[in-house]
Amino acid sequence: MTRISQNWDLESIFPGGSTSLELQNELDKVRTKIGSLQRQVQGLDPSLTVQEFVKLVEQMQEVMMALGQCSAFIGCLNAQNVQDEKARLLQGDLSQLSAYQATVMTTVDQLFVNIPQGIWEGFLQHDELKDLSFSLNERRKVAQTKMSPELEMLATDLAIDGYHAWSRLYNTVVGGMGIEVEIDGELRRLSVGQATNLLANPDTRLRSTVFTKLEEAWAQEGEVCASALNHLAGFRLNLYKNRGWDDILAEPLQINRMERATLEAMWEAVEGGKPHLVKFLERKGELLGLDQLAWYDLNAPLGGASKEIPFEEAASFVVEQLQKFSPEIAQFTQSAFERSWVEAENRGGKRPGAFCTSFPLSQESRVFMTYSGTIQSLGTLAHELGHAYHGYVLKDSPYLLRRYAMNVAETASTFGELLVVDGAMQQASTPEEKLGILEDKIGRSVAFFMDIHSRFLFETRFYEARKKGLVSVNELNELMTKAQEDAFLGSLKVYHPYFWASKLHFYITGTPFYNFPYTFGYLFSAGVYARAKEEGQGFAKNYRNLLADTARMPVEALAQKHLGADLTKPEFWEAAVKLATDDVEEFLRLTK
What we know:
single chain, Neurolysin, domain 3, about 65% helix, mainly alpha, three-stranded mixed sheet, 23 helices, Butyryl-CoA Dehydrogenase, subunit A, domain 3, two-stranded antiparallel sheet
């Protein structure tokens, strides 16, 4: 592989960053497109012709794509430099534009609802609409459960400076945070993302110090974060009440196109696997010379896994492992590196976390992370590039058929991560290095079965408490600690009370319960990965077809079609959990 950059290229999309004239022109064009869509739908009634309906759907998708292009770019600007004031202002402009689009889409949805069933079904038989029937039916069904269009528009308008504003306030607070840590005798000020990376450092004292300083930093911002979280939840609960939605999970399940029975079967299987993970945590503590693990020890490396992996070496290794399964995926991934789609530099001023975003008009993706040279960073790199491949598979589909749900969004990402981490384990040069990589792999199971479950338990209980009134910082800490104790079966000596403040996912307005889809995706992709190991490269075509269908049907139908599995029953999930518990048994055997 030729020399690659650790910084992404955004100039090829809109040159000039947050001062880009091309971006501003595109935002103006998007506003014009939304206005045109608004005039078009206002001129229609339920007796419209099929040609008018086709044109409406086409224009609707054009608006979504144009807005998505700008949204992805502005999101990248804010992630790469949280101090970019102009990018923050652009985010505010985008929120206004998104609200305008949402208001117009409420009018479109009402038209959908008012079209008589027989005429609606006839429209969906049209050649240009057949493929879109699932997405259009889904949109119509959801619209039927909402308030009147006037009230939905009002709620959308009020959300700009209410609901979404609390989310932006949280991002502003995090952007200004930092802690000072002494590293190699030098006092350094680190961003939250950089500091969090140090929780994977082999030095126990450093991990403990960083964790304590992070908790103190979040405590200082606790009241502001609690206000943001309380008001986000209050807005959401009031909106649900006025829509007649009495189940806090109704919207998350609908967004993820899954049944409650599937969610319950998944958690049941996860609970069954947790005792194995407790044994793993106990053994890991022994190997680290600790009487019991603390929260900040969960990502501490063992053995050779603590060696630094240079970024270019990591990039080459990811491509090499993907090549063994699918030359197409490997070629795509290599191209992503060479075209500078990845922002990985370990520097201050970046937001914490990692993500992949798609640019629907240019049919490209960008990956964001802070690469730290660890096996965890290697896995994250493969994970986010898996998202990018998923977008590549769908790039030529109509836009409505690119809008897959969050739970299946984790399929390609986790699949790629499993391929690469297993490859690293097979190529380990020493038993210690192999053990360290196996430990890291099991650590991901701990994250999805225990950490993610604690977030789900916290959010479920928080919403119940919020129905009765505002929840204080102390109460939030207690809810978070109790959720972690329950999810980890009491296996840690120190928990993370301020996790509710530190986790961005709780403050994302577009996606409630930004937690259980990760566990779903991890286990679902584990099932897919098991099939891939059985069939080898012959499975690559089936894998691609599965990804291509992710926005065309509910997850239960997707699993039945491509895997012959019933997700509402525990058997599929238990088999996937067993892959993780088998790793634990191997780990325990190797560390006797």
